[in-house]
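Action item from last meeting closed. Structure (697 res):
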């Protein structure tokens, strides 16, 4: 049989690179970047190539797996759906709607067959106990977009190809490939920026992105709020806000400026460690650059003041005159709309978590509360769980406690491709067929793309007869649950039909036929200002001073400054280009070579404890203790230690032959479910207080 070449976007990260898949005799034999994709232009990273490992992985599940005592048995799909539907309905009939909870993991947004289908299953189940990876990630972004612009996804992204000056806080796109900034080949784009202008990276660690940048500004973990407040005050001293063009569309600007005023560059320095002179100079540069933007991501949102930081980022861009301007920060206006009619604007604090009283956001509760909601008896206790594409044991705060909690569930059904650290507690695992067998459209990531792009991904091959696609599993579960619960339900049509309907909600005129005629995707050009015309606030104006943020800022400013106890260190995370959260360590291509799990420690912090490079150390936090090898690193600010998340594969009972041999503890055995972003309840994963000691003997 001849060699066959097919094209499709990579489903593994937000960069959505076009890939070329080569098959011989119907067998997938090679992957490379699709040089004809106008957006990614041939870019591919090691993970893209590791799709070969995923497709061939003998540990990957293909048929439903049911627990039988300590063992597992494969069963048929109809039997599996019927069992899961009946069990979930039974728990709700006996204990109320809230007795069934759900957790949705990160890959949900990477697969149309999950993303477009799960909301209707969740509406059918109608529980207030819904959780997702969003509350260990980008809740602060969505909450600020909702509060200021009226829609949780109306979120400005950096116009990275046209900006001449960029301040980046708490992001490491050279390792992560970019987030809430869909920009394949980001390293190339940032390198071009440093040639025509300046990129300044604010990070406690001289990261791979900081290495490439024009300037690295080291900051103490969790203190960006004070840096941003001082920066805003300096901008005002220089004549900001520049409100030309926003006339009549800014509500509460004076209130916002009053609430945020009064932090001097000297106070900024005292809190954050960034020199006052640097803060002043950055303010001057930001105002002087005709095309400039300020962007903050993961390291900014998963900390104590994540939402306040995101609010400040918006205010700084607005006041400097760079919001909704070419070369500044502006929202994508995607071909398949994620805002506007028929989408969910969001809502906040309509109900609270039962045990701790944490407010919901857009129908979800903070995942930091999941373990206590499972373990605390009483009305509304979670007894049954549906998870999809999530590994919360390794990914959410106090993972070891959640691990124990999952083991107590009456019934747990997981839609997942692996028997891993979380799904080992399931009673039933429903594994979707390879995403390469399904139609896909990148609804979410096109909505954060730095250019206006559209691409339909067609199946590369048909799924096997005894496999089911992701959307078929959601439909199958919903049908069985509806029947058992006595609720009406009509299955959703296949993805191609839903993609067509999604495109028809937009105004681009682009339909399936147009996309099918462009197998490498369409690039419709750079982003245009659209924020003001698309605002969804009740007033029709930008709400510069959302009440709950003003109140939270006042609370934080009145509280005494947090100080580290003697010997305490601040723990931060680290991504590597060969990692993908917790779930790709079974791919041989990604785990070969030197270990990547080690704890990085500044040489002065090693010396202060009588430790040497390579020593095994014990790392202790309020919630847990782990053991790990320490590596000296000059890239860190003294007082900061750095550990990647997503390891911790030694737990028993998994089916991950390769990953089980990968060393390294789980970062989230140290994180604290009480350490939250005050305004949103997002987990403050970065800045966890730890102590470090030698393991004797
Ligand atoms: N300490 C610390 N913790 C973190 C982070 C951090 O930086 N530091 N990052 C956080 C972030 S940003 C995120 S998004 C979360 C992620 O948190 P999670 O989404 O809970 O964790 P993942 O490791 O992404 O696990 C993905 C799961 O999806 C499964 N899977 C993969 N492909 C498919 C598929 O096609 N279909 C289905 N049904 N399942 C599939 C995998 O087997 C795995 O079980 O982790 C967070 N946790
Ligand atoms: N290779 C790889 N790529 C990925 C993933 C992966 O696991 N591996 N995960 C994907 C997912 S789900 C996401 S959400 C994105 C995340 O993508 P990014 O947002 O780029 O996240 P990180 O790479 O974790 O970079 C966060 C940076 O914040 C810094 N930081 C920590 N604490 C602070 C602080 O208090 N202040 C400041 N200013 N900086 C701080 C860290 O040192 C780190 O360099 O990556 C995605 N891409
Ligand atoms: S950068 Fe992201 S989208 Fe591109 S090949 Fe790598 S994992 Fe896939
Ligand atoms: Mo994420």
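Sequence:
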């Amino acid at each position: 049989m001849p060699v066959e070449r097919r094209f499709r976007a990579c489903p593994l990260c937000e960069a959505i690179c076009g890939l070329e898949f080569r098959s011989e005799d119907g067998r997938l034999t090679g992957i490379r970047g699709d040089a004809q994709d106008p957006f990614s232009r041939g870019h591919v990273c090691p993970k893209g190539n590791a799709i070969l490992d995923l497709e061939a992985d003998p540990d990957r599940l293909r048929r439903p797996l049911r627990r039988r005592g300590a063992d597992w048995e494969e069963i048929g799909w109809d039997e599996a759906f019927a069992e899961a539907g009946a069990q979930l309905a039974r728990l709700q009939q006996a204990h109320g709607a809230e007795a069934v909870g759900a957790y949705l993991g990160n890959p949900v947004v990477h697969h149309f067959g999950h993303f477009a289908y799960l909301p209707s299953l969740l509406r059918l189940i109608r529980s207030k106990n819904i959780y997702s990876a969003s509350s260990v990630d980008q809740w602060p972004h969505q909450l600020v977009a909702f509060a200021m612009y009226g829609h949780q996804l109306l979120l400005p992204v950096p116009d990275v190809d046209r900006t001449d000056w960029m301040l980046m806080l708490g992001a490491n796109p050279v390792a992560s490939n970019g987030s809430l900034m869909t920009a394949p080949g980001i390293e190339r784009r940032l390198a071009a920026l440093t040639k025509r202008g300046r990129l300044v990276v604010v990070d406690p660690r001289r990261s791979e992105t900081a290495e490439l940048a024009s300037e690295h500004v080291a900051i103490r973990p969790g203190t960006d709020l004070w840096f941003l407040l001082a920066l805003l005050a300096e901008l005002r001293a220089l004549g900001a806000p520049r409100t030309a063009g926003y006339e009549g569309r800014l509500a509460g600007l004076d209130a916002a400026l009053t609430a945020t005023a009064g932090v001097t560059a000297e106070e900024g320095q005292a809190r954050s460690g960034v020199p006052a002179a640097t803060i002043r100079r950055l303010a001057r540069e930001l105002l002087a650059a005709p095309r400039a933007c300020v962007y903050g991501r993961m390291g900014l949102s998963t900390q104590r003041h994540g939402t306040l930081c995101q609010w400040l980022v918006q205010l700084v861009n607005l006041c400097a005159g760079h919001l909704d301007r070419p070369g500044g920060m502006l929202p994508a206006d995607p071909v398949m709309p994620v805002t506007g009619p028929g989408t969910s604007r969001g809502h906040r604090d309509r109900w609270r978590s039962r045990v701790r009283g944490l407010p919901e956001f857009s129908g979800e509760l903070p995942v930091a509360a999941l373990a206590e909601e499972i373990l605390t008896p009483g009305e509304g206790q979670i007894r049954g769980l549906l998870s999809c594409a999530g590994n919360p044991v390794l990914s959410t705060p106090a993972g070891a406690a959640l691990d124990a909690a999952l083991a107590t569930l009456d019934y747990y059904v997981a839609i997942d491709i692996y028997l891993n650290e979380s799904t080992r507690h399931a009673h039933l695992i429903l594994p979707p067929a390879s995403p390469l067998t399904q139609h896909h459209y990148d609804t979410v990531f096109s909505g954060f793309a730095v250019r206006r792009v559209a691409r339909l991904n067609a199946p590369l091959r048909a799924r096997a007869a005894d496999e089911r696609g992701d959307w078929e599993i959601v439909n199958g579960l919903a049908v069985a649950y509806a029947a058992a619960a006595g609720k009406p339900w009509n299955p959703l049509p296949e993805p191609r039909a839903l993609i067509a309907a999604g495109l028809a909600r937009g105004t681009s005129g682009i339909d399936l036929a147009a996309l099918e005629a462009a197998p490498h995707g369409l690039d419709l050009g750079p982003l245009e200002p659209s924020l003001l015309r698309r605002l969804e606030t009740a007033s029709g104006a930008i709400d510069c001073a959302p009440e709950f943020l003003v109140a939270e800022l006042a609370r934080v400013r009145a509280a005494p400054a947090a100080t580290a106890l003697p010997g305490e260190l601040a723990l931060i995370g680290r991504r590597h280009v060969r990692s993908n959260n917790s779930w790709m360590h079974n791919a041989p291509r990604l785990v070969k070579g030197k270990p990547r799990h080690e704890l990085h420690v500044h040489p002065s912090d090693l010396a202060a404890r009588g430790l040497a490079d390579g020593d095994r150390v014990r790392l202790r936090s309020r919630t847990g203790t782990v053991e790990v090898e320490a590596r000296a690193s000059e890239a860190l600010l003294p007082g900061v230690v750095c550990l990647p998340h997503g390891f911790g594969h030694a737990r028993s009972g998994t089916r991950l032959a390769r990953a089980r041999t990968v060393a390294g503890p789980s970062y989230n055995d140290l994180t604290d479910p009480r350490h939250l972003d005050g305004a949103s309840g997002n987990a403050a994963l970065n800045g966890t207080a730890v102590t470090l000691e030698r393991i004797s003997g």
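Note appended to the action item: The chain has four domains: 3-56, 65-127+383-442+456-495, 139-334+529-556, 563-694.
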